[in-house]
Amino acid sequence: MSRPRALVIGGSLGGLFAANLLRTIGWDAVVFERARGDLAGRGAGLGARDELFEVMRRVGAGVGNAALGDAVGARVISRQCRDILGNIVHEVPQQAIATAWDRVYQPMREALPDEFYRSGMQLERHEASGDRVAAIFADGSREEGDLLIGADGLYSTVRAQAFPEEKPVYSGYVAWRFVVTEKDIPEALHDQAFSRMIFSFPRGELAFAIPMPPSDDGARQTKHRAQCVWFRPVDFATELPLLCTDAKGVRHGVSIPPPLIRSDLIAELREIAGATLAPHLAAFVRGAEQPILQPVFDLASKHMVRGRVALVGDSASVVRPHVATGVTKAALDAQALADALLANDDIDAALARYDRERPPFGARLVERGRWIGADIGRDKPAVELTPEPGKRLDALLRGYGAAGVIEGEPVLPARGRP
Ligand SMILES: Cc1cc2nc3c(=O)[nH]c(=O)nc-3n(C[C@H](O)[C@H](O)[C@H](O)COP(=O)(O)OP(=O)(O)OC[C@H]3O[C@@H](n4cnc5c(N)ncnc54)[C@H](O)[C@@H]3O)c2cc1C
After folding, report:
1. Which ligand 1 atom minimizes the distance to the CA of 11?
2. Which of 80, 77, 276 is nearest to 194 (CA)?
3. Under CATH, to which class is 5-61+103-168+300-371 assigned?
4. What is the pTM of this model?
5. By percentage, how much of the chain surpasses pLDDT 70?
6. Hey, whose CA ends up nearest to atom 35 of ligand 1?
7. In CATH, which of 3.30.9.60, 1.10.8.80, 3.40.50.720, 3.40.630.30 is domain 68-98+169-297?
């Protein structure tokens, strides 16, 4: 009997997890990615979970070794909030793991043989007929398989066709990201910035910094990296298009390639950071070579399967970045799909199981993201900077990320519950 064939649309992390996992259970899985070239330079820092590294190990992707100093995960020892003068207002010993896009993408990409990864292939639409499904690409070519997996992200073409009713909702704010190495910020800040999460809560905004593992560039020119993410309210219709307009006046829609972000915007951000953020975080904004701008959306899909089409990662549901779990969720979605297919010879029964199990998980993460982001907005009162347990600040420091949600029960102080 020939092996069942999966067409995986999107060759970022969700697609790589899906294709690698399906290949381990005996499927023929091929990735079709619209971008040409390597995606390793795309992302920045990522909050992570041990579950992510477990899935990487399962497909044979290297996760390094902490004792040798090349682990893909960096440990964070505590979370602290600092005021505008830099004083610690509150600190909790809650630990976390952080990684970096390049440190997950590279081993996952290397795990998939090149003949199963096809770049420059943009899906236009799919056609379903009984137990077969076909993908039609922009170059006119057509591929057929037993299953089509939408791993094509936030603006998913697969979701738009299979679930036209499911649309990501803009949160009302954007994320600015600033990645630094030790040469970019004052030495006096290194110890704190490369071992702890540091938060700042200007009124209606939220900013934090988190360590990252060094890049795996072989040369090891830097020992440390860290990133600051600064969430700021931005009106979708009137302000976002201006942020996404380059120096020549060209409008890029709702996102913009980082090198085209205007220098006057960067200068303005540096000035505002100096006036409103803790000095530790303002140093990131001043020191980072190239800020990245991303509008924040979310979407809790009720279903992730229609016929022989299944969604994983951001194509399935979109979680606000505060939960630091989009990549772990993509890995766990792909793993749940592979496990369901492994347990059932009947593909439709496996897909029905996947569709029952996964949407509630995405919905819990989406809920956590909304709870964390609830203070971000121009009309929102400032988060009270008091260290008492049970108050919003304490709950935010402890609840930032996905602690408890993946295990099942949200671990939040009673008064901080969503
Ligand atoms: C500011 C910010 C911070 C974040 N921080 C974290 C964090 O700390 N931790 C974490 O885990 N997650 C984080 N995330 C979320 C994380 O980046 C996403 O959840 C993750 O990238 C989803 O992966 P994906 O493969 O599903 O989608 P994507 O990474 O979006 O990939 C989709 C792929 O599909 C391709 N594609 C799209 N359309 C087509 C088409 N028609 N045909 C073929 N290919 C197509 C795209 O080119 C792309 O390569 C953050 C997100 C943001 C915005």
Report:
1. 49
2. 77
3. alpha beta
4. 0.94
5. 93
6. 10
7. 3.30.9.60
